[in-house]
Design brief:
This protein has about 80 residues and is mainly alpha-helical. The chain has three helices and no strands.
Length: about 80
């Protein structure tokens, strides 16, 4: 069985027998990285509070930056040409 190009990474090859889809594997990888980062920052007692004046910037980045990235990457996955 020939694997698609997105499924040829070592981390995904380990997860194939468990029936994990590529999008779920990416979400799992992102969540694990975020949890590790949060754990390290909390252990180092880094102040994670965001000043109120920066809330709009964070919201705009979340809505337009991250969402646009995932929309574009999703379009390339389903419609490569």
């Amino acid at each position: 069985m020939e694997l698609p190009s997105y499924a040829k990474s070592d981390s995904y090859l380990i997860l194939i027998p468990y029936g994990l889809q590529p999008l779920a594997a990416a979400a799992l990888r992102g969540c694990a990285g975020g949890l590790i980062l949060l754990t390290v920052l909390l252990a180092l007692r880094v102040d994670l509070r965001v000043p109120r004046r920066d809330w709009a910037t964070f919201l705009a980045y979340g809505v337009f930056g991250v969402a646009l990235f995932f929309i574009c990457s999703g379009l390339t996955q389903c419609c490569p040409e």
